[in-house]
Design goal:
The protein has about 260 residues and is an alpha/beta fold. It has a domain of about 180 residues: Aldolase class I (TIM Barrel, Alpha-Beta Barrel), CATH 3.20.20. Helices cover about 45% and strands about 20% of the residues. It has 8 helices and 11 strands. A 9-stranded parallel sheet has the order 9-8-7-6-5-4-3-10-11. A two-stranded antiparallel sheet has the order 1-2. β6, α4 and β7 form a beta-alpha-beta unit. The protein starts with 7 loop residues before the first strand and ends with a helix.
Amino acid sequence: MNMSQTIVQRGRVVGQGKEPLICSPLVARDAQTLRIEAAKVVAKKPDLIEWRIDFFAGIGDISQVLSSAADVRAAAGTIPVIFTRRSIREGGESIGIDEQQVVALQEAACASGFIDFIDCELSCAPSDFRRTLDAAHRHDVQLIASFHDFQRTPAADDIVGKFRAAESLGADLAKVAVMPQTLEDVLTLLNATLQGSRLVKLPLITMSMGGYGALTRMFGWMFGSSVSFAVGDLASAPGQVPIDDLRLVVDVLTRALHRA
């Protein structure tokens, strides 16, 4: 019995239904480095790849972004690709374009055929969220509605509220990442994930960040998180563990559960 929801994209079960799906980030600053990084990450055989476009120096040039998106798609092969611009307010990099240019870039990425998922923050303007969602669904791209707090861990009810908001807005997946200050905060995130998995129909992606949060990356799937982020080459957030280490822990836990 799966403990997290299966993710299906374009009629295909991602990762053949295993759990958790492992996603590795791409954080290169330029096209050449991105191609090298993508090759290294793909060699680790993650289930998903996330291209963090806010790290990319050419983010202001749509044609350059789409050219590099084509490179990522070619390297990834059948591995689904997530296109993510993380804002400064939610822990991302500083970029030289405004929010309307970001939305135009997201629309172009959805139309390109090079991506499978797109991340859009719940904190963005409602009209921007709707434009991105409409573009995603026009082009059979799934939208991940996300929320990140790099300072603290909100109350469990507030986290569950983010899941509910993502569902009510029409997103395909809901993601929450928070920063724990104590081990109790880690338990709050796990409890909220378990509650959310029983209350909403969307696949959930949740994690605590930092050292304490590494625990959630290794066994958050047991509480209902469908995806865990792990390092294929370089990390995109604090607390990400190497992909081989994550696989080892998941294998031990899976065998233990099957013996139970």
